[in-house]
């Protein structure tokens, strides 16, 4: 299910339509944000859905218009160069606009930037200011609703249904309602609302995303692919669209094609996690440990608190012969999960047993695994077999040590007898290893 729906895009340059007036001031066109997928670190999409402020266009002072244009141009330039968006700089630029003049679109864009910077309280205040200045600013109302969306799907649906009533021309409330219906398996209703959103904005990538997922989950993969192709024509830089094609290919049993699409998605956006997780799962399935390590490290750069990925990284390290790194990863996984993942103890036990040849601590870890995993693990998993194997190895080791001591004692006894027969001084007996002192000669 797509992580729909948020208006993240700053006001595009082409939507400003500023015109010089007789007094030297220019008008600012409605803000034109567009939907893209959360979380806030996601790159904004390129298409725009007009959202006209109440009262039509307003005249801005030359300074406010210049600062507004410069802020938009700075964002567009970073997007054109395909470099990571400098949200801190953009925050300063939009704050400069709001300080020059209370422009609702500037407060809206400031809220978008603050969400990208994970400053939700300040973003909430910026959206509220935009609505205070322009009560008809639907985009700000939707973003504010998304920011404070109730966890209860029913309450969330009521909230967006009210927004759809208040802003009938805005596609976003219908997109969100469509996503909520899709999440509960109501594909027909999700499809209807997604189409209504697309009718209100034919260039809404967010509406296409809802319809894509509704088609796929409704058992129509070919239609889902067609919708994804149309959406990509609107925004070729959106990794979610490319990754979705990979999801469809995988569902069609075309793993090679799926992997190719997921790799394209992470090439567009290195930290696009849905594709990273998909590639990780495929690598684990094929026991391609270099690939597991590659994807796990990439995910942990973005989500360093994912204990399961740390565990996968440790397993990869062990198979690659890097036992110390594996043990470090297991320690991190145990810490991150507050010791709630039994498999960490199983993996550590295997590493100690196979990689370090330390059976005693390995048996301790395997027993911890059995306690945490429950009775089924004792009969269905490998832990009991490994414990038995380790116990046998320990017993064999003790037997070998005892045999070596007996052989050594026999050799020393033979040497003393030989020395006594020839009248030579008998060599001193070796000190017992357990006591560390020289035994008296006979």
Helices and strands, with pairings:
Blueprint: E1 6-7, E2 26-28, E3 35-36, E4 58-60, H1 62-81, H2 87-100, H3 104-116, H4 120-133, H5 138-147, H6 153-166, H7 171-183, H8 187-200, H9 205-217, H10 221-234, H11 239-251, H12 255-268, H13 273-285, H14 289-302, H15 307-319, H16 323-336, H17 342-355, H18 359-373, H19 375-380, H20 383-421
Antiparallel strand pairs: 1-3, 2-4
Provide a brief overview of the structure.
The chain has 442 residues and is mainly alpha-helical. The protein has helices at 62-81, 87-100, 104-116, 120-133, 138-147, 153-166, 171-183, 187-200, 205-217, 221-234, 239-251, 255-268, 273-285, 289-302, 307-319, 323-336, 342-355, 359-373, 375-380, 383-421, and strands spanning 6-7, 26-28, 35-36, 58-60. It contains 20 helices and four strands.
Please give a structural write-up.
The protein is mainly α and 442 residues long. It has a domain at 1-148: Alpha Horseshoe (Serine Threonine Protein Phosphatase 5, Tetratricopeptide repeat). The protein has 20 helices and four strands. It has helices at residues 62-81, 87-100, 104-116, 120-133, 138-147, 153-166, 171-183, 187-200, 205-217, 221-234, 239-251, 255-268, 273-285, 289-302, 307-319, 323-336, 342-355, 359-373, 375-380, 383-421, and strands spanning 6-7, 26-28, 35-36, 58-60. Helix 17 runs antiparallel to helix 18 (359-373). The model is unreliable at 1-56 and 434-442 (pLDDT under 50).
